[in-house]
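Task card 7
Instruction: Convert sequence to structure tokens.
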Amino acid sequence: MPLSGKLRVFSHCIRRLAGFIILSAVLSGLVVGGPTAAVANDEYVLGPQDKLRIKVYEWRASRDIIFEWTALNDVFTVSAAGSLSLPFAGEIPAAGLTPNSLAYAISDQLMRNMGLGRRPDAAVEVIQYRPFYIVGHVMTPGEYPYRPELTVLQALSIAGGLRRREEGIARFEREVIQGRGDVSLLGLENINLLARKSRLQAELADATEIQFPTSLTSRRADPTIALLIEQEVSIFKARREGQHTQIRALDNLREFLEKELASLEAQLVFRDKQIASIQKELSDVSSLVSKGLAAAPREMSLDRTLAQYQSDRLTAETSLLRARQEISKTEVTILELRNRYKNEVTSMLRETQAQIEALERRSDTAFQLLHESETAAPRLLARQVQAAQAKPVYTIVRRTNDGSEELPATEASLIKPGDTLTVEIPMPAPESFADTEPEDSDVTTFAIGQAKSPETNAQ
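Output:
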């Protein structure tokens, strides 16, 4: 063979060797580079929800090039059934395989489906691992993305750390302060309702003054109660005076109408006398006219006068009937005014009584809550002190082919994708501190003190 031919063959072999070196470098970079190296060394096993980046290349000696399968070079997610659906390769089981094993399965499937003479080179890179879960006594339980070499302690920090075992004593102090404030407000509301009820009862009985209960009058030295009594008395006087003013106005109207009625009746009597006199005179004149002793115009004049007086009597009689009607309307208005006032007072009294009964139930609840806060705080604080000494218990729940298994763990234990980390804090039994008081000198104890129920406050 001539030297030039040998040189061409040698050059072709060098180019093929260089191509293989480049392809090996690319594939090794995909498989070994980044976080996948640690996973591959640890023989990471794929499962559902894993996101994979797949690269497929083929060396084509006829063209002396490295061909990239662009239809397959993409990101795919392992399905819930644990498989991958790839172009040309079809459905490939992935769950339970390592990335390298899956890459071999992909290339082998492509070689069979596409009728290739040799397997193409495939690489699989895990770009997002399936999540892990953390539940129990942590601040924010839930689902979190996995990362390689994740320990129990790191997972705990991702979930915000351990949940506070018990809320501080400050919460109980706030509850006691709020409870006492609620009791005080309920007592004041009860006093208001009692004073209002006394006023309404006086209004309903049309009394001249309010008869307050002894529970209020005995505490007039209290500025709040004294002001409340003064306000109710002012309201009582204003409402009573308003009603009496309206009734007096209607009474005056009725008196005026009665006087007008009497005047109209007197006018009718006078009109009757005038009509009788004119009728007598007309009769006499008519007799004279018939005898020719009197002129006819005189008779006609008397006849017109009689008709006028009779018309005036009818007008007076109509006014009399109208006055009687107005008197009846005035009496009905007075009656309606009194009834409406009594109905209004009765309705307000019934509503006030219902509010008093509802207040009694609310007061009972408020006192029970206040008593619970004041007496339970020391016991709960003692429980907090004991619980603070308890150490958390970690358990990893891991899926297996047969279902799942529970593995005891420590803070240094490694978590795998899909694991569920359970964090539990053993709590002391309530009977262990029910009869004990905390020994810490800084612990605040509570007592009911001077707080009283609304009924007691009212007295």
